[in-house]
């Protein structure tokens, strides 16, 4: 992949103009065509790399330049590539059975390196992505399911205001009332559902109720949209959606809201952020747009592929993540730049911050001696989450209501079942919009750890940016209800809030909110400040929530009405 023209010099300038609430250009988003034209590598970059390939024995007629002029591909045998890159290639087989051609290291001449961002296949294994949560659903027993199903057909559709029903299972009932008796509030504090999220944030924010209309969902304004990313083999079941809607929103059974699903990857080639960006970002796409039918070329499908032609929605929620240490710095920097481009187009990229506190996926930390992964129970160096550490996305942590309290008692950082992911990047610099908030955190927070635990330089990106409730979500899974936990739940909640605000702005003739971080950090008063809780990991207590921004819950949870008013006041 060729280096983009002027990306370092212009990205921050362009983004600050469009996303800065004080800018006269706020909300004037770019077209995809303008982005491709602006950031396409110039001809001199292409010529330098082609010249290097020719010196290495790769003739120009064996190369192909992508339509966006950013990928230069060529066919070569193993000996040619190993000689060109001073590498040794192998076929690596994952425990899942998937094979991948890669090398452990490679090099290019120093005078060529500035013109190239990524070479694949090399050290980028592009493994299947992990969801932000693991084993954080609580299935109900057979007896509980039997009782629950009976109650769904009897009294859950007509809930009383009495106490908990007999038995120790968790009541997943629906209520049409928002102002409930105190005992009812205490019970629902343990079972956040669509109604509880409304009750909690409505108390401070007056979340709007969905109006009844012919086309349910967010189609009140046709151009409004929300996207959810899923990586094969994971996928939703319409039957589970209908199960959920039957209990919580019967009018949506068989006619779900208009949500765009980005189903990425297949059973042969696993899904990854690469696949997703190929679909929505024409300036990134690794394919030429006309499919090669050569069965000898690894990873080729015998059909045409379309680059950047998937519908681009206004808000995209993703509950998957890599550990920042999984990927090379260049790889992460380039993908982060692509999220910046999506923000330039008015798209809000929302990512779950992770569920293992300061540890990475599967509770992994870094061995301080070898740099290799080790389980968090053995201690180690904190393991940040990517893309949450990318400064051009909005990272969402998780909160919960304390057991035995009411939804009006306030929230704390989620740490009973999952731990809200948060910390500081080892790759990305501290963005301008975050400098004051992070500076205040380091000024006021006690010094708990040194550089042997995390990047305490005070100069790198902190995450998460915001939070939402991430505990006890009633979820339909394979025909049954479970209680789910995780930033996989809180991220789409925050994404849905942005979608509601977009609906208001679009109806008023305004643009979408796009990249929201500069606005949010400049207006922390639109959040409920979370001051209690921690995000343990790597055999430490992690960081602690405190007044202002913190690397556990970010700025806090949204006050919808205040946030809506803020964005409606902008051009």
Automatic annotation (TrEMBL):
EC number annotated for this UniProt entry: 3.4.14.10
Domain Peptidase S53: 195-570
Catalytic activity, as annotated: Release of an N-terminal tripeptide from a polypeptide
The record's free-text note on cofactor binding: Binds 1 Ca(2+) ion per subunit.
Residues where Ca(2+) binds: 529-530, 548, 550
SMART domains: Pro-kuma_activ (SM00944)
Signal peptide region: none
Keywords noted in UniProt: Calcium, Hydrolase, Metal-binding, Protease, Serine protease, Zymogen
Gene3D superfamilies with a match to the protein in the record: Peptidase S8/S53 domain (3.40.50.200)
Domain of life: Eukaryota
Cofactor(s) it depends on: Ca(2+)
Function: Secreted tripeptidyl-peptidase which degrades proteins at acidic pHs and is involved in virulence.
Record's protein name: tripeptidyl-peptidase II
